[in-house]
Amino acid sequence: MSRVRRTKAPRTRRPTVEGRSPAKASRARRPTVEGRSPAKAPRARRPTVERRSPAKAPRARRPTVERRSPAKALRRRIGIDVGGTNTDAVLLDGPRVVHAVKTPTTADVTAGITTALRELLAQPAATPPGHPGLTPAAIMIGTTHFTNAVVQRRDLTRVAAIRIGLPASASLPPFVDWPDDLAALVRGEVVMVEGGHEYDGRPIVPLDERAIRDAGRRLREAGITSAAVTSVFSPLNAECEQRAAAILREECPGLAVTQSHELGRIGLLERENAALLNAALVDLARRTTRAFTEALRASGLTAPLYLTQNDGTVMLAATAEAFPVYSFASGPTNSMRGAAFLSGLADAIVIDVGGTTTDIGSLRHGFPREANNVVEVGGVRTLFRMPDLLSLGLGGGSHVQGEPPAVGPRSVGYRLVEQSRVFGGATLTATDIAVAAGLVDLGDRRRVADLPAGQVTAAVARMHAMIEEGVDRMKTDARDEPLIAVGGGCFLVPERLPGVSEVVHVPHQAVANAVGAAIAQVSGEVDQIFQNLSREAALAQARRIAEQRAVSAGAAAGSLAVVESEDLPLAYLPGNSLRVRVRVVGELAGA
Amino acid sequence: MTSLRPVSAEEIESLAIGAWILGTGGGGSPYLALLNMRRLYHDGAVVSLMDPMDLADDDHVAVVSNMGAPLVGQERLTDPRTIARAVTMMEEYLGRPFRAIMSLEIGGGNAIQPFMAAALLGLPVVDADCMGRAFPEAQMTSFAIHDLPMFPLTLVDVRDNAVVVARAASWKWMERLSRTACVAVGSIAATCKAPRTGKEVKECAILYSTSKAIRLGRTVQAARSTHRDPIEALIEAEHGRLLFTGKIADVARRATEGFLRGTAKLDGLGEFRGHRFELAFQNEFAVGWLDGVPRVTTPDLICVLDSVSGDAIGTETLRYGQRVSVIALPAPPVLLTPKGLEHVGPRAFGYDLEFTSVFA
């Protein structure tokens, strides 16, 4: 049985990269884009980075892992991964995987979840008689649904893009760097108005409120239901976006408004792109989360529903409705977090070998190391915090052809069970080679008995070389590190690799991402400017706010730990200003 | 007889790739300028490239650049109308029209600024610049090395603020005066530097650097489309040297006095396995050490490229774990003269090192 070791630690933080590091991309995670109480109105002001002096490098405090009393943390939880091909579900009891199931994903998503839950709950171990306290207290769903909608250009809402920043930025309007086909689906109204801020917080020009009001009326007439508001330097000063959102809602009741400062950091086009994608997905997000909720209700579950995010934490379904883009890369994150949990390792390389591709990532303190560059989603440039992954065109279904044998990137994918040789098909795949080489026993071994030994050896060598090279590229430490192998095709991973101390196989590896969803935690974050307070007082106040936010997002108060804390004085703002960013993470509170 | 060659939309794409490589880590990403050019070309603009030798001695040439913090540019973006206004303002100030426009620095986004202005003003772009790469300061130009005057200068922002620096006592004063105005308007401004005569351009500019940037970009694109190694292709085509191949193990950056300074440490891969490389930068890469021994210094061009795509990596986008190749490209000869080294050699960046070219 695997040990539980949940190390809470900062997400990768290179203390050196100013400002552009994703770790700074603070998302003001307030359960509130639209229509929420004014008390929760975001106040995040994120200053630019240039002012950070090296002495003020982030002081990420890595907490020691706190031991919580079991009564405080949730004991039983269900994790569900809704993938493109399979819907996986696991029931966890503390550190123990009680049961796991894998079912095909259905077109309506709901039926797949209902089926998976029914199979899961039908297990005698799932609902031991006389132990009503063991009913699941939280359900976490990780889904690629929203990413797929963007990639596949479906179920997207036509949106209004409101850019505040004229006379700056005029020549590059919203959607300027979008692929034509996607822009054609999403672009509704485009409105550019005067306003925005300088890097030091001064207004560029006053916000043109009348133009916003006119735009609101036009949106109502045009039947636009979702808008993205982006103001120049809004991560530093969000006033323009907040004011514009309020006016738009007055003029166009029911309009869903995404404000860019809640999603991203410095980089107008990339932040605006994130806001536009979010606005385009809010309808789908609402329908999907409600379908999820419905599926739970149909399964007789009353526990609260959470959706997983890119960074390995969860948000309540009600919040997820407003921030679908936060879930964009939650699949790989969950897979890596699940691998960490199942292996008990917090620092390791993780290799996830699927049917078509292999993803290799690096775990640090139990969280994936993040990519620190522009990430394209469906051809749109964004700056989301995403795990740093290397994808290889190698999987169990990869075609093996030629002499010397070439492997992938073409694959039979989920048709492995029809088309590969060992399952009676005609296509020679990586799985057939593995069976012939005795690496795994699948299908009918006699069907590959005719393969020349030389060809098998050469193909295995080729696959091992691909994996070795990929692992080496993802390693950033010269010391040997453990490698955790997960995924349906993990038999392709050699048992010995240069630079790897051991290859770790874990139980339930095929449902690692559902496990990763089930163990997700809750975070609360604050990023704002405090004035006329001592540093200690400002830090303490920031921590209190972050903790309150985590608790209102569902965290158990006693379990909270600070995972990131940084402060920097702002030389160019009046009144002894200190920007403080604090992020706390904790366990979900018991029901 | 003047020969003007229209520059195609594909060449603008190549220019963006090549200029970013010649930026040697600085100069700012050409991405936003490229997006502007795509739109201008989409709307029918075509810019012509002019052979500098076709300039008459008394022709007037505008030297343009965008000035300020790249980070601010990422929010305020960049607009062809702003840079065009810097040019027309200089024409108004001087009371005579320009024959053509040229770039201050061919490295980074400023390679494309003259094209943005030219597209709106209907002027050709001269195939030249005065750095042959990117450098952080105004006196690090071939014009400064030749002791040409550094004034007047026009500076405009998006709000219709405009400043003319009519005279400056030295390059330092010009830097101080224009920098102050730039900060006041939000740390980003379009500038038209001291105008040059055709004679001055022919004698003191770095000639044919625009077509060189286009050529570099095309080399990388061609290698990619034929699945050749773009690094190898670049080295072969431009007589460069491969200095190191590895992955970024550590990056330390700090912003001081308007510069992005720092170091990057690389662990070797392939033939360099077991070796280490260290890079120091001040906006641009300035010095590289192989296993602790100086291997390359400015003004040799130190280019850090993505080992797979051949795309340049800027000092602000360097990141832990990136797989990169470090190559050196030859510097323009004027930078290698004793006077040139005074302006742009290692000592100009505070390194007590003798310059020895890797191409020597």
Would you mind describing this structure in some detail?
Chain A has 591 residues and is an alpha/beta fold. Chain A has two domains: 1-74 and 137-328 and 520-591, no CATH class; 390-510, no CATH class. In chain A, 27% of the residues lie in helices and 24% in strands. Chain A has 13 helices and 23 strands. Chain A has helices at residues 110-122, 145-151, 180-186, 209-222, 239-251, 268-298, 317-320, 330-343, 416-419, 430-436, 453-474, 512-518, 535-552; strands spanning 76-82, 86-93, 96-104, 138-143, 159-166, 187-194, 226-231, 256-259, 305-308, 313-316, 348-353, 358-364, 367-368, 375-377, 380-382, 390-392, 398-401, 406-411, 481-486, 500-505, 521-531, 561-569, 577-586. In chain A, a hairpin with a 7-residue loop joins strand 22 (561-569) and strand 23 (577-586). In chain A, helix 4 (209-222) crosses helix 5 and helix 8 packs across helix 12. Chain A starts with 75 loop residues before the first strand and ends in a 5-residue tail after the last strand. The model of chain A is unreliable at 1-73 (pLDDT under 50). Chain B has 360 residues and is an alpha+beta fold. Chain B folds into two domains: 4-209, CV3147-like fold, CATH 3.40.1610.10; 229-349, Beta Barrel (CV3147-like), CATH 2.40.390.10. In chain B, 33% of the residues lie in helices and 27% in strands. Chain B has helices at residues 9-22, 31-42, 70-76, 80-94, 113-121, 142-145, 171-184, 198-204, 209-225, 230-238, 333-336, 338-344; strands at 4-6, 48-50, 60-68, 100-103, 125-126, 128-129, 153-156, 162-165, 188-192, 196-197, 206-207, 241-256, 259-268, 276-282, 284-290, 293-297, 301-306, 323-329. A seven-stranded antiparallel beta sheet of chain B has the order 16-15-14-13-12-18-17. In chain B, a hairpin with a 2-residue loop joins strand 12 (241-256) and strand 13. In chain B, helix 2 (31-42) runs parallel beside helix 5. Chain B is globular. The model of chain B has no long low-confidence stretch (mean pLDDT 94). The chains are: A alpha/beta (591), B alpha+beta (360). Chain A binds chain B through residues 14, 16-20, 48-54, 165, 167-172, 176-177, 198-199, 202, 204-205, 232-233, 266-269, 362, 369, 372-373, 388, 472-474, 476, 478, and chain B through 32, 35-36, 39, 69, 71-72, 74-81, 158-160, 186-187, 247, 249-255, 262, 267, 269, 316-317, 319-321, 323.
